[in-house]
TrEMBL record:
Record note on quaternary structure: Homodimer.
SUPFAM superfamilies for this protein: (Trans)glycosidases (SSF51445), Glycosyl hydrolase domain (SSF51011)
EC number: 3.2.1.-
Cell location: Lysosome
Name listed for the protein in its UniProt record: Alpha-galactosidase
Family: Belongs to the glycosyl hydrolase 27 family.
Length: 411
C-alpha cells in the first residue's frame, strides 16, 4: 500500500509539470548572445551593436528568409539592453540604443508573426554588470515584461547566492504566471549549481521552468561543442528523463554560420542538438549567412525530428573502439533518429553496422532517409549489414521508420 501510494505520488508529480501550456516542442529562434555579445558601441559599430536596429533587422530576416515559416519564431534579446530603473524602480532599456522601447520591439516582432524574448538576471547585476532583478524586484519586473508583451524570459544567475536562487526562480515562475500573460521561462539556475543532483532538483525545475541551461556557455569553437556534448553524454541518465514537452534541457545556442566550426562540424552540431531534443536558438548574422549554412539550419526533415511530438530526448547508445559513436532518439510512429558521429581525425571512415547491433529486435523491414542527402536506404532488417561513411568530426544522420512486420517478433 505504501509502495502504491509512493508510485501514485510519483505519477502525480510527473504530471505536475509547468502548466503554462508553452513550449510543447523545443523552442526555435534567434538569440543575440553568442554572436553579438555585449557590443554596445553603436557609434563605432552601428550595424552590430546591441540595439533595436539589430533586433529589427534580424526580425526582418526571420520573417522574409523562410526561418519563421519553418518554426524559428523567437527573437531573443540577451544581456546589455538595460539602461537603468526609473524613479518607481521600473526597468528601462538603454535610451540611446533602444529609443522606441521594448514594447515597440515586441509589437514589431508580433506584426511579423514572431515572438520576443528578453533577458534578466536574478541577482544584484546581470553578468555584464547591468541592473539585475533582486528578490524584491521579481514581481515588479515580471509585470514590466508582461506590460511590454514579451513572450519569453531568460533569467540568468550571476551575482546571486545559492539561497537567493532557490527562492528567486520559483518566485519568478509564480510572478510570471500571476501576470496572466503566457511567458515562456528559461532558467539558468542549474548551470549555477553544477547541473547535477543533489544541488539540482530536475523535477522541481520541470515544475517551474520551460527550459534551462544545465552547463557552460557555448563559445565559437568545436572544442566548446565537444565539451558540452561530453558533459551531456556523461550525465545522460540524469538529464535524459528530465526533458519532455514543456520542459527542456538547453545545451546552449547553435554556432552554425559563425567562425569556429567547419562544414562537417556545423552539420554535427545540428544533428546532435536535434537528437538531444535541444532548443534551436541560432546566434549568427542572418543578414550575411551562407546558403550552405542556411541549408543545415533549414533542413525540413531535421526540424521535423527536432520538433517530434513525443518530445523524448535521445541518448548515446554506442561508443565503438573505432571512435564512431551512435546516438538514438525515439520518435512518433515508431520511427527513430540515428546519428553516426565520428570522433576520428584521419579520413572518412566506413562504419559497418546493423540494426541488430543497435539492439533493434523486431522482425520488421525498415527504411531510412539520410537527413542531409535525402537518400533512401531500403530493405533494412535486423540482421542486414550496412555501411555508413562518416567524415572526421562529421555525422551521418538517418530518419528510420518501419515499413512492414515480418510476422512474429524474434523475442
Ligand atoms: C548584493 O548586494 C547586497 C547589498 O549591497 C550585498 O549585501 C550582497 O552581498 C550582494 N550579493 C552578491 C551575491 O553579490
Ligand atoms: C498559471 O498557472 C495555472 C495553474 O498551473 C495555469 O492553469 C495557467 O495557465 C497559468 N497561466 C499562465 C499565464 O501561465
Ligand atoms: C524535488 O522537487 C519536488 C517538487 O517538484 C519535491 O517534491 C521533491 O521532494 C524534491 N526532491 C528533493 C530530493 O528535494
Ligand atoms: C544492447 O543490449 C545489451 C544487453 O542489454 C547491452 O549490454 C548493450 O549495451 C546494448 N547496446 C546498445 C547499442 O543499446
Ligand atoms: C554482417 O557483418 C558481421 C560482422 O562483420 C558478420 O559476422 C556477418 O556475417 C555479416 N552478416 C551478413 C548477413 O552478411
Amino acid at each position: 500500500m505504501l509502495l502504491k501510494t509512493v508510485l501514485l505520488l510519483a505519477l502525480v508529480a510527473q504530471v505536475l509539470v509547468l502548466e503554462n501550456g508553452l513550449l510543447r516542442k523545443p523552442p526555435m529562434g534567434w538569440l543575440a548572445w553568442e554572436r553579438f555579445r555585449c557590443n554596445i558601441d553603436c557609434d563605432k559599430d552601428p550595424k552590430n551593436c546591441i540595439s533595436e536596429r539589430l533586433f529589427m533587422e534580424m526580425a526582418d530576416r526571420l520573417a522574409q528568409d523562410g526561418w519563421r515559416d519553418l518554426g524559428y519564431v523567437y527573437l531573443n534579446i540577451d544581456d546589455c539592453w538595460i539602461g537603468g530603473r526609473d524613479a518607481k524602480g521600473n526597468l528601462l532599456p538603454d535610451p540611446k540604443r533602444f529609443p522606441h522601447g521594448i514594447a515597440f520591439l515586441a509589437d514589431y516582432a508580433h506584426s511579423l508573426g514572431l515572438k520576443l524574448g528578453i533577458y534578466e538576471d536574478l541577482g544584484n547585476f546581470t553578468c555584464m554588470g547591468f541592473p539585475g532583478t533582486t528578490l524584491d524586484k521579481v514581481v515588479q519586473d515580471a509585470q514590466t515584461f508582461a506590460e511590454w508583451k514579451v513572450d519569453m524570459l531568460k533569467l540568468d544567475g550571476c551575482f546571486s547566492t545559492h539561497k537567493e536562487r532557490a527562492e528567486g526562480y520559483p518566485k519568478m515562475a509564480a510572478a510570471l504566471n500571476a501576470t496572466g500573460r503566457p511567458i515562456a521561462f528559461s532558467c539558468s539556475w542549474p548551470a549555477y549549481e553544477g547541473g547535477l543532483p543533489p544541488r539540482v532538483n530536475y523535477s522541481l525545475l520541470a515544475d517551474i521552468c520551460n527550459l534551462w541551461r544545465n552547463y557552460d556557455d557555448i563559445q565559437d569553437s568545436w572544442q566548446s561543442v565537444l565539451s558540452i556534448l561530453d558533459w551531456f553524454v556523461a550525465h545522460q541518465d540524469i538529464l535524459q528523463p528530465a526533458a519532455g514537452p514543456g520542459h527542456w534541457n538547453d545545451p546552449d545556442m547553435l554556432l552554425i554560420g559563425n567562425f569556429g566550426l567547419s562544414f562537417e562540424q556545423a552539420q554535427s552540431q545540428m544533428a546532435l542538438w536535434t537528437v538531444l531534443a535541444a532548443p534551436l536558438f541560432m546566434s549568427t548574422d542572418l543578414r550575411t549567412i551562407s546558403a550552405q549554412n542556411m541549408d543545415i539550419l533549414q533542413n525540413p526533415l531535421m526540424i521535423k525530428i527536432n520538433q517530434d511530438p513525443l518530445g523524448i530526448q535521445g541518448r548515446r547508445i554506442l561508443k565503438e573502439k573505432s571512435f564512431i559513436e551512435v546516438f538514438l532518439r525515439p520518435l512518433a510512429n515508431e520511427a527513430s533518429a540515428l546519428v553516426f558521429f565520428s570522433r576520428r581525425t584521419d579520413m572518412p571512415y566506413h562504419y559497418l553496422c546493423s540494426l541488430g547491433r543497435l539492439n533493434f529486435t523486431r522482425s520488421r523491414v525498415y527504411e531510412a532517409q539520410n537527413v542531409y542527402t535525402g537518400d533512401i536506404i531500403r530493405g533494412l532488417q535486423v540482421t542486414t549489414n550496412f555501411t555508413v561513411t562518416v567524415n572526421p568530426s562529421g555525422v551521418v544522420m538517418w530518419y528510420l521508420y518501419p515499413i512492414k512486420n515480418l510476422g512474429t517478433p524474434q523475442q
